[in-house]
Amino acid sequence: MSNPGEPVTYWKALAVAADNNQLYLNEEAAHACYEACDKYIAKLKVHQKTARDLRNVTGWGDFNMGLHLQKVFADKADGGENNMVDVLQSHIDVVEEMKVVFNKFFTSTNDVDEANAGGIQVDGPR
């Protein structure tokens, strides 16, 4: 992992490392990170909606230059190359991958706890 590459690929690699017990995070920290991801995604979605709304901003006048500026800024908000809506979506995608990694730590802990509890119930106390 010396060259992480794309952020989503990096988090997928961390998910694999977690599956292979090569990465550890305690359950409490994993829950906190997972919840922080949810809050961050909610903020990013608000910004996405704002960017979509900016697509329809008017008031640049009737001259060709004003109409041209209106189109440039509208495309930068949504629909053009490297527009804000798409950039924010790429951030949301990365944070969703982060959530997958954090979820593995408390799902795995719960699975181990349930397996241990099942063994205790079958064998009884010693």
Question: Overview of this structure, please?
Answer:
This protein is mainly alpha-helical. It has a domain at about 25-110. Helix content is about 75%, strand content about 0%. The chain is built from 4 helices and no strands. It is elongated.
Secondary-structure element string: HHHH
Structural class: mainly alpha
Main beta-sheet strand count, sense and barrel state: none
E-strand count: 0
Beta strand % = under 5%
The best one-word shape is elongated
Helix content: over 70%
Low-confidence stretches: none
Radius of gyration, taken over Cα atoms and rounded to an integer in Å? 23 Å
How many angstroms separate the termini?
45 Å
Q: pLDDT average, as an integer?
A: 86
Give the count of helical stretches: 4
Key terms:
126 residues; mainly alpha; 75% helix
List the helices and strands and how they pair.
Elements: H1 7-19, H2 27-54, H3 64-77, H4 84-123
Helix pairs in contact: 1-4, 2-4
Short description:
This protein has 126 residues and is mainly alpha-helical. It has helices at 7-19, 27-54, 64-77, 84-123. The chain has a domain at 26-109.
